[in-house]
Amino acid sequence: METNKIDFTKKTLSEIAIENIKYAEVFEKYGLDFCCNGNINYLEACKNKGIDETKLSKELTESSALKNKNENYENWKLDFLVDYIVNNHHLYITESIPKITEHLNKITGKHGGNHPELKDINESFTIAYKDLQQHMMKEEKILFPYIKHMALVYEGKAKNEAPFFGTVENPIRMLEDEHKTVGELFEKIRELSNNYTVPADGCTTFNLTMNELKEFEEDLHKHIHLENNILFPKSIAMEKELFAD
């Protein structure tokens, strides 16, 4: 049975990704940034990347039928979404860093002579993960507790109190800037590694490391998408509603 065509042309990449996380997976395949710079129009993004809009729209439409009903992130309560981000994406980052660091150090030592780009990849990943560690700590210690408190207030289970940082928009603005910075670091890693390509003389660990870095970036994109495009806007809207005169 033929799938009805969906019109994506008047929407931004982030708006499309919010509708169905499967769309985000297709964007990932085509190298389209739906998280940090997702406010670009679909047609403009295709033009900038030299992508056949008709072909991409067809692939997106076909993927729409694969959506899992449990992946309706935009309909989740904010406190549940916060817990999901921490228990899945934050945990993934924390557990992945030591393994990737070990493997990067190993292949840099073994293959760095023939592949000097590995040194830059290693350095960029180190900067990225240290930034992410600080970033996640700010979220878990400052922003996320406030969002969860707002969710309780919204349900009448807690008293409404203004945060010490004035408004939720202040930490969100800072965290979005940090998302952009780490996103740019991974763009650099992807370029240096030629889209995580293993060279002819690459060993098994080289192959493993490239796969780990690729997976890390893909998870990071989904992670940032959930925050930038769903959690943060909904938190801002909830705060405005709670403090409305």
TL;DR?
This protein is mainly alpha-helical and 245 residues long.
Highlighted features:
single chain; 0% strand; 245 residues
Could you explain how this protein is built, in words?
With 245 residues, this protein is mostly helical. The chain has 2 domains: 13-71; 73-242, no CATH class. Helix content is 70%, strand content 0%. It contains 8 helices and no strands. α1 crosses α8 (204-242). The model has no long low-confidence stretch (mean pLDDT 93).
Apparent shape: globular
Would you tell me the overall average pLDDT?
Answer: 93
The proportion of residues forming helix, as a percent range, comes to 55-70%
Q: N-to-C terminal Cα separation, in Å?
A: 52 Å
- The ordered string of helix (H) and strand (E) elements is HHHHHHHH
Uncertain segments: none
Count of all domains? 2
Radius of gyration: 20 Å
